[in-house]
Protein: Amino acid permease
Organism: Sphingomonas liriopis
Amino acid sequence: MIFGRVKSLDAILATAEKRGLHRSLGAFQLTMLGIGAVIGTGIFVLTSEAAQKAGPGMMISFIIAGFVCAVAALCYSELASMVPVAGSAYTYTYAVMGELLAWMVGWALILEYAVGASAVAVGWSGYMVGQLRNLLGIEVPMEWVNGPSAGGYINLPAVIISGLVTWLLVIGTTESARVNAILVCIKVAALTLFIALSLPVMNMDHFEPLMPTGFTGVAGAAASIFFAYVGFDAVSTAAEETKNPQRNVPIGLIASLGFCTIFYLLVSAGAIGSPLGAQPVRDAAGTLLAPGTSELADRCRAIVAGGALEPLSCSREALAHVLRTIGWVQIGNLIGLAATLALPSVVLMMMFGQTRVFFTMARDGLLPTKLAAVHPKYRTPHVVTIVTGIATTLAAAFLPVGKLADYSNSGTLFAFMMVAISVLVLRKVDPDRRRPFRTPLIWLVAPAAILGCLYLYFSLPLLAILVLPGWGLIGLLIYFGYSRSRSYVGRGITDVVDDPAMQPEIAKPLH
């Protein structure tokens, strides 16, 4: 039976205990990892796109996206506390709905993590180029900061940061978490400063009309800036490396998501209330222009050439632009510098999540066992980290940030929906299993997560909607051509083969 291959929760837990990763992370570190993964490109880079799609209504978009993430986080928390192992949504689906759907979720998570990391790397590149120009007077040729679709050769800064993050992840989890905690503090300080300076001078008149593009525009913006929340589930992929995961994983998930949602609402309010406002840019005939198009770029240049302030929708460093407009020029530059310093932490967490999903899939036999090899000195899955790093670097080198973010969202929404379904199924088929964290109002929360994910998915641009089934078809070909015949569960092996490379905590160094 095609859906009959289920890996029991007991087998998953046994595998993790015998061949697991080192447990070194606490609740505070997990919360920092979650905040580090969430606060980044979405608020620093995609604010302009949200303003163009929804105007001041982007605050409602943040609430919609945050609500979908909140109900999904509650579902994640129950499963992560029951199954505190690496693998995130992939592992949970394997335990509940079988190997084929688990493979599809793991395959979709590549869109979320690897493609998402590429999007953040491209967003960081824009800030880095701006800092080189504003602070050092160095003008980087556009051919080397844009991919072919934007008229360039390669996005060199994005390639460099992807390579550095790959190296850091190979060195070790604890070291990565320490660097991440420092970068999180920089990001939070920068956004706190933005809020403190922008809210006191907020002009409430700029919130009218609230939804100039209607609710369709608000929904479209919510689907895009959903990327601003992507990453909180990376906390659950670190469950196998967490001390007392039954307590600490739910704390890390919910605390990081709640913290980020409040921040986003305050930051977007400050941007909307600034002299720039947040009304979408239209052409001379009054037609709304789509974000990321050459028509919008031409219109923005014409507005600035006419002596007007550059609209929020036109800025590539929106928050820094707002502060410069209200008179805090140097602090605006510092906000840009903070984004430049801090965005790599988001690349780090997304690549961290991807490597742990790949590690778990390889440990189950669905990917080559070599990918699950652990470095004899650093005790990290170095092979899969390097493979992920190469894929992330290639995508960042040649694709634009907007498309990457939308592609990432399509994979994320599918994975979130499968987690919510898994929670419902498990409540039915195994009601007596111990649940250290129980999702409240499960028969209301889980369906809300499922419907919310579907709504946001179908609010994405058409190409992003089509990417998911196309990517899924490639995944099915790989599954039936390679993975299905090599699966340990399919071969009747309930635990992983006795391979020293897959026993990082007890194995002797490999020679």
